[in-house]
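Re: duplicated header lines in exported C-alpha cells

Our pipeline writes sequence and C-alpha cells for each protein into one text file. With two proteins the header for the second block appears twice in some exports. Here is an export where it did not happen, for reference. First protein block:
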Amino acid sequence: MTTTSQLTEKCAVAGVWGSAVAAEKTRDMLEALQHRGQDATGVVTLNGGMSRYVELGLVADAYPQAVLEELVGDIAIGHNRYATSSHAHDLEHVQPFADEDAQWALAHNGNLSVTKPLVEFLNEKNVAIDDLNDSGMMHAAIGWYLRAGSSMEDAVAKSYPLFVGAFSCVAICEGKLLAFRDGHGIRPLSYGKLPGGGYAVASETRALDALGAVEQADIGPGELLVVDENGARTVAIVEPTPKLDIFELVYFARGDSRLCGRVVEDIRRDFGAQLARECPVEGEAIVVPVPRSAVSAAEGYAQVSGHVYADGIERANRLRTFIRPDQESRKMAVRQKLIPKPEVLGGKRVVLIEDSIVRGTTLGVLVAMLREAGASEVHVRISSPPVLYPNFYGINMPSQSELIAHGRTVNDVCEKIGADSLGYLSVEGMLQATGQPADTFDTSVFTGEYPIDIGDHQNEITR
C-alpha cells in the first residue's frame, strides 16, 4: 500500500455543473490554479456516460482542443497535482479517480494524517487497497456505500468519520456536482453561479473569477454542497471548528484570491507592515521582495519603515521552487528563475523580504546572488514566523530535520543563509494582521499545535 508518508500532495480541485462546455470551463479554472500543482492534471465529465482524461505536466499543454471535444458532458470535475515521491510521474495516481460502473468520480485536495480507520473499514469490506493512496481510499470508501445502495449525499456523510485529516473534495454522481470540506476547513473551497446558468466550484476564488462567477461563497468547514437541477444547497455534515491553514495566506494561495473575506495580497501587505514594526532595519536601505509572493509584504514593510521599495530581482517564470521534488532541483531553479538587477542593487543596503523560510534553499542561494550583484549588505526579513514543524495536512514538508529553523537559533539561520541580519514576523503579529480571530487558523507548522489528529506522525517530531 502507498502510505501518506510516501505520497503527500498539495493540489487544486475544480468543478462545473450545467454548462455545455463543462470540460473547457474546468480546464480554465485548473489553469488559474496551476500554482497549486504542476506534475499532472485531469478532468472527468458526466452526461449519460463518463469520460476521463489525465495527463502529466502543465494545464496549458495537457488539453488540446481535440481532447476537450471528447470530454462530453455538462458536469465536470478536475484536479491539479504535485507529488513528492516516485509517483510524481505515475498516471495511476493522477486524479480525478473515477468508477465507470457506478458512474461517479472524486478529486481530493489535502492529506489524511491518519488512515487507520479508513484502512480498517476497507479491509473489513474486502476492498483491495494495495495500490491506493489516501485519496484513492477515500474514493473506495464512498464507492462502497454507493454500491450498498446509499445516495451520493448519504455515502459522503457516512464516510466522513473515516476521513481523519484535511480534505476539500469535488465529486460527480447521479447528475449532481458535490463539494465538501473537513470539519476544520484546513484547505479552501468556494463556489459561485456562472453567467448564463450553472455553477462552479474551485479551490480558490480566482478560478471562479476566471469564469465570471457571481454570488461567490465559501463552502464552510464540515459542509457538503450539492448542485443539481434544483439549484445549489449546503448541508452541515459535522460541527464546524474553523482552522484554515494560515500557510495559505503566507504562501500558497494566489494573491488575487479571497480568503477570510479579504484579498490575499492585502493580508500579505499587512504582514509586511507588522514585520516592519517588529523587525526594523536602521539606516538608509532599499526594500526588495523575492518575487512574486513576497511583493505585497515588501510594499507593506516599505510603507511603514519609510525605506524605498525597489524591484531588484526579476523573475523568469512562474513555477515555484518550493514544490520541486528534490533539493538539487530547487537550488538549480533559484538561479534559473530569479535574476538580481545590479543596476538596482549595486552599492545598496538591501532589506530582502521573503514570505517564509522552509528549507532555506532559495534564500541561501539568493543572498549570495545579491552580493554578486553588488549589494553592500543583505538584511533578510520574513513575513511569517520560523517554520519549526512539518505539515501533515498536504504541504510538502516531509521531515522536521529538513526545516532550517528546527534546532537552530535565529542567529544560526542567519549565518547559514549568509545574511547580515535576519528577522521573522511573530506568531501573534501574523494572527493580528489577518483581522480574524486567532483561534480560527491552523498554525501547526509554526507552533506544533495540530488541530486534527496526526497519529503516528507524532513520533516524527520533537518539541
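Second protein block, exported in the same file:
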Amino acid sequence: MYNSRQGQWLRKLLGISRGGVLPTPHELRIVRVTSKSMLRDFAEYPVSLYKGSPYYCPPLIDGDMDTLTKGKNPTLEHCDYVCYLAYRGDRIVGRIAGMINHNCNERWHQNRARFGFFDFEDDEEVVDALMDAVKEWANDYACDELVGPLGFTDMDREGMLIEGFSQVATFIENYNYPYYPKHMDRMGFEKDVDWLGFRIIPPHTVPERYRKGADLVRRRYNLEAFIVHDRKRLVEEFADDIFDLFNRTYSNLYGASVLTKAETQQLIDTFLPLINTDLIGLVRQVSDGKLVGFGVAMPSITKALQRSQGKLWPFGFIPIMKALKSRKAEVMDLMLIAVDPEYQGKGLIALIFDLMIPVVQQYGVRFLESNLELEHNVHVQVQWNFFRKIHHKTHRCYVTPLTERGEELAKRRREKRAREEAQRDEDQPNRLLMPRTSVEEMKKYEGENR
C-alpha cells in the first residue's frame, strides 16, 4: 500500500506532495508536527507503546494536547517549542518535543533548550534521529545546552525513570522502559539532577512527636491550621494566596520559573475543582491571616487512567471522577507541600501533618506516594524521617552541551559534583538522608500494613 492510491491519506499526513513516493516499510522519517491530527497522534503514541504495562500511567490526552497548543496554554506566551514524530513507513515509532522557556532562562541566567515528551522503541536509529532533530532546532536558537526530560514548567511531568521500573507511576510522574536511560548513556548525556520518590506508610494516629511539635509551633508563632470545606470560599479567598506561596516556596528550586498570573489562573480553573477540599490543609498567621503553609493530597487516579487509556470521552471520565471523588483510597498521592521560606526549618510541617493525618486515615489509606523530590532538597526530605518509608523510584534529568560554552559549563559541573561527592564521603553519617530499602523490606512493610 505504500506507493498506491490507498496511501493518499498518508501522503497528506506526512506532507508529501501529490505524486510523491511514500517511504518504504523500513525507511525512517522524522516529521515535524504541523496539524491537530498529528498532535493527537503525538499525544496518544505512548498509550500504544506501553499497552499492557501495569506500571505506566497515561496522562490525560486532551490535557497534553492543550499543553502543546497556543491559546490554550498561557506558558507558551514566553516559550518556543517544536514537536517531532518518528515514522517507519506508516507506523509511528517515537516522538520528542523541544522547548525553550525564555522566562526560566532569564531567571537562571542560562541559555538552555529542553527536551520532553520523549518516547521511543528500543531502536538506536530512531533515538538518535529524534535527538538530532531537537539538537538542530536548538542550534537555530544558539542554545548552549540541551536538558531533559522536562516540561515547560515544574507543573509538567519531568525526569526519566532510572530506578523503580516495577513500581506503578503516579498521575504526575513519567514512566519509561529500562532501555531509555541506556540510550541516554550511549549518546553521552550526563546527569544534571535526580529526583527521589518515596512510598510512605501513614501512622494510624498522629505521632506524639508531631502532636507536641504542632502545639509548640502553634503557640510560638501564633499560627492556625485549618481546612476550608466550602469550595467556593476556598477558591475566592485562598486560591491566589496558595499559588503566591507556591511561587515563594518553589521558584528557587531546580529549573523552576515563577508562575505568571495567567498560568496561576489556569491551574486554579483546572485543578482546584477536582481536588477534594478536605485534602487541602492550610496554615496561616492568626494576626493578619497571611498564608504561610499548605499541603495538598489526592486519591490515586492511576488505575482509572489506565482503564480509560488517558481519554475522557466517551466514558473515560467516569472512572477518573469516581476515583477523584471517592472517600476511600488505598493509595494517596501527595501533590504539594509548601512552607513560606520565612518559616522553613521551624517545625511548621508538624502543623500540617497534625491536621492531615486523621483525614488520611478516614480514607483508609495504606500508602502515600511522595512524588518527586529533588535529591538535595533537605527541607522536604527530613519531613519523612519519622515515618516508615521506602525509596522506590529515582528519576533523572540529563544534560549535554551544544556549544563550546556548553562544554565549559559541563566541565565546571563535573568538577562541582566531584567536590560534593568528596564532601559527602567525609560526612558519611549524612551521606544518604533517605536510606534505600530492599524489595524484601518493602514487602514486609506492605504485609504489616494490610
